[in-house]
Write a structure and sequence with these properties.
This protein is α/β, with parallel strands linked by helices. Strand 8 and strand 9 form a beta hairpin. The protein is globular, with a radius of gyration of 17 Å. The termini are far apart.
Length: about 170
């Protein structure tokens, strides 16, 4: 993949590769109807640290897509200073793992301060309910806007999605 990215003109000089470390991987098992799935952690990579962000790094937009709690608040805070727009899909923040790798939701352990850094928030309806404690979508979206998130996108599976932009009429 790194070769391909480089061939496409992407600067990969700041990528750190740790040959002796595991990468995060899951076993994903779908039910026959493909409506439900079971996720099991097989291995977990190292979390990002502020030292992983190159000095002078800047991008117009950065998307945070953690899958196994590998992006701590301090890294998100530093990345916010490196871009105009910071977006987040929080699914990996809400995941915890038992000793056998079974995945369970644990939104109570999420550092909610991270949402004050975010310009664009995207999650499932289930995730925003878990993170905000709200049970109505309108109230959950309002809770995200109230902490400073400008744009909220909620996926509703086969029913589509809801987009809310703060201040839009």
């Amino acid at each position: 993949y790194l070769w391909w990215l480089e061939q496409e003109g992407i600067d990969i000089t700041s990528i750190n590769k740790y040959d002796d470390e595991a990468t995060t991987s899951f076993q994903l098992t779908y039910q026959p109807d493909f409506e439900a799935r079971t996720l099991k952690l097989k291995s977990k990579g190292l979390p990002l640290t502020p030292d992983d962000i190159p000095a002078g790094f800047y991008a117009k937009a950065i998307h945070l897509g953690p899958i196994a709690n590998e992006i701590p608040y301090e890294v998100a805070e530093l990345l916010k200073k490196c871009c105009d727009t910071l977006s987040l899909d929080p699914q990996g923040l809400t995941r915890s793992f038992d000793a056998q790798g079974n995945v369970y939701e644990n939104a109570a352990e999420v550092d909610n301060d991270i949402f004050s850094l975010i310009n664009i928030y995207k999650s499932s309806q289930h995730e925003i309910f878990a993170l905000t404690g709200e049970t109505e979508l309108k109230h959950a979206i309002r809770a995200m806007h109230d902490v400073g998130v400008e744009t909220v996108l909620i996926t509703l599976g086969r029913r589509g999605a809801v987009l809310s932009v703060e201040g839009a009429q």
